[in-house]
Write a structure and sequence with these properties.
230 residues; Alpha/beta knot; Trp Operon Repressor, Chain A; 2 domains; binds adenine
């Protein structure tokens, strides 16, 4: 899978994909993330990519011309299945969207800044608008990193234990059950006995019960309306 990201602050996206699981995904050739600087398509030698908004008001708007030129140039290299715009007024990102996007071949993500991008780019190029939550970030870069991470770890072969993403929170409308590792007794705080007995069926049943209990306590809405994550 290939994900291209268009941003005015490429530095913000240097680290997130250079470590750990995303690094491994890249090294294995399973996920290639390329970050492009929108200023390479600036309208003048001052690197201008934004301008005042029509109708007045504070805050700059990212202009059509650099964005359209950048998108057209990138489209010559890749046929995008989705052109995503990261924006707080987009659709809420969730596991279901991550699952769907992980099946695509080529994605372009546009990171907004300032007041956002000119509406005409949204109307004519963008195929999907994503928000990572009901709060406003100073730009779309960190949101894009979240989305790429959530997608990347789902690609077959990226995680060591291929099945492990299947047991994540949300994959079955339930939060994940508690987990423990050695020692079995830390300062008198004991690991539940059932996990030490070596009976896989009992462990499965216990985990399911705990997942249900945790979901009822913390996110009862998931049980009442699974649609919210699927
Ligand atoms: N850009 C600014 N805030 C954002 C958010 N919450 N989600 C996605 N992109 C954003």
């Amino acid at each position: 899978m290939k994900i291209d990201i268009l941003t005015v602050v490429p530095e913000l996206l240097e680290s997130p994909f250079a470590h750990s699981i995303m690094k491994r995904a890249n090294e294995k050739g399973l996920l290639t993330v390329r970050v492009y600087n929108l200023r390479d398509w600036a309208i003048n030698k001052h690197g201008q990519v934004d301008d005042y908004q029509y109708g007045g008001g504070a805050g700059m708007v990212m202009m059509c011309e650099p964005l359209a030129n950048a998108i057209e140039a990138l489209k010559k290299e890749a046929s995008y299945d989705e052109i995503i715009y990261m924006t707080p007024d987009g659709d809420n990102f969730n596991q279901s969207t991550a699952n769907q996007l992980s099946l695509k071949e080529n994605i372009l993500i546009i990171c907004g800044h300032y007041k956002g991008i000119d509406q005409r780019i949204r109307d004519h190029y963008v195929t999907k608008e994503i928000s990572i939550g009901d709060y406003v970030l100073s730009g779309g870069e960190l949101a894009a990193a979240v989305v790429v991470d959530a997608i990347g770890r789902l690609l077959p072969g990226v995680l060591n234990d291929e099945t492990s993403a299947l047991f994540d929170s949300f994959q079955d409308n339930l939060l994940a059950p508690p987990v423990y590792t050695r020692p079995a007794d830390f300062n008198g705080w004991k690991v539940p006995e059932i996990l030490l007995q070596g009976d896989p069926k009992k462990v499965d049943d216990w985990r399911h019960e705990e997942a249900l209990k945790r979901t009822k306590e913390k996110r009862p809405g998931l049980l009442e309306d699974p649609g919210q994550i699927h």
